[in-house]
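Hi everyone,

Forwarding the result from last night's run.
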Amino acid sequence: MSKVKDFLAEAGVFFMATVDGDQPKLRPLGAFLEEDGKLIFGVGDFKNVYRQMTVNPLVEIVACKPDGHWLRYTGRAVFETDGKYAEQMIAASHLEAIYNEQTGHKLMTFHLEDATAVEIPVMGEGENLL
């Protein structure tokens, strides 16, 4: 898992794809944390992405490093029940203005299960990272 974490950290911004009916949806993300042997990501409970993931939990995350290598991290999103992950992510990413009692918005954290992660060079075969 640490190779995937290192790749995402170096890339900075990464993109996550979901499905809305029969239409793919892609959006940039940047916040994640590694905790309890899992990479934890977050989405707002008020956003379409959260609704899409509850209907179809299959997602794909793609990131690209400056050297042209890119990562395809695919799996089934499983939402966390322990609020500690959201608290840590909100504090680390300075998201307190969005996720608080006044707004009523909640950060829903998740990790990927049944996942694959492949680092792919500009030319050539990919390397499995998990």
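The CA atoms of residues 18 and 59 lie 5 Å apart.

Cheers,
N.
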